[in-house]
Amino acid sequence: MLKAPEHQVAGHLASDGKLGPLVDGSGRFYKPLQGGGRGSKELAFYETFSSDTRVPDHIRKFFPVFYGSQLLEASNGSGLCLHLVLQDIVSGCINPSIIDVKIGSRTWYPEASDDYIKKCLEKDARTTTVSLGFRIAGLQLYEGKESGFWKPGRKEVQSFTVDNVRSVMRRFVSSDSSIGNENPDCSFAPSIYGGSAGILEQLLELKAWFEDQTTYHFHSCSLLILFDKESVLKGSTPVAEVKLIDFAHVLEGKGVIDHNFLGGLCSLIKFVSDVLSESKESSIKADEESEKPHNCTNNGNCT
């Protein structure tokens, strides 16, 4: 039984008679091919990428598994539509916290029409795309059983300032990520952002590849950062993942490094690294405070 994804945070939603992706509940994600040639270009990318021997095996883990394409009934009831069949990235997660980050200080691609470029320039200028080299395109943060998810709407997300982005990156790894908490503790940062399998290490691994690869230029591509907060709250070892998605505007690199993507990736790494450093400093201060000797007077008062 196909249904709309429960944890989709950006893009076109399969709701209210609109065309959008579907999931089957067993680990597969069905994305309808977009119009205007974008869908066919994304399908061509997956077909080429899946067999491209120039892509190292350790880099493939950052891309959804591609299972081919399939004709399915469209979510908007318009009839059969060709869908990409991909890995459902959040399959198996109970309450995943997810951030969708659009990478690059320029989201338009060289072959785009003048109208499309103008539209992108306007959006890039009013979001953090130009100032940071990336913008948050969508997110959901799991707050707990009572509150559920914080999942701001598209307009709110597009209005995020640099300070808002910094706050989201901190709340993402905090035990209390509620919107009313002005001082999130970042207590999950060491296990989610840090460590040999954490988000920072994965981003650095991607960065090393982008510093060398000249095969592809990833225009208007998103990077998903996610982990199942429920497993952390239960004391289980968290699994944090980084995935690249949305490849309708990927072009040949022609021997040139993709500086637009690389620059945005480096900026995102700086934000993650800063949160991780802050959490370590807070932990050290807390340890130092707990180790301080307490001087007690004869009347029982301690200082």
From TrEMBL:
Start and end residues of each stretch annotated as Disordered: 282-303
Catalyzed reactions: 1D-myo-inositol 1,3,4,6-tetrakisphosphate + ATP = 1D-myo-inositol 1,3,4,5,6-pentakisphosphate + ADP + H(+); 1D-myo-inositol 1,4,5-trisphosphate + 2 ATP = 1D-myo-inositol 1,3,4,5,6-pentakisphosphate + 2 ADP + 2 H(+)
Pfam families recorded: IPK (PF03770)
Gene3D superfamilies linked to this entry: Inositol polyphosphate kinase (3.30.470.160)
Domain of life where this protein originates: Eukaryota
Protein family per UniProt: Belongs to the inositol phosphokinase (IPK) family.
Official protein name in the record: Inositol polyphosphate multikinase
Species this protein is from: Hibiscus sabdariffa (roselle)
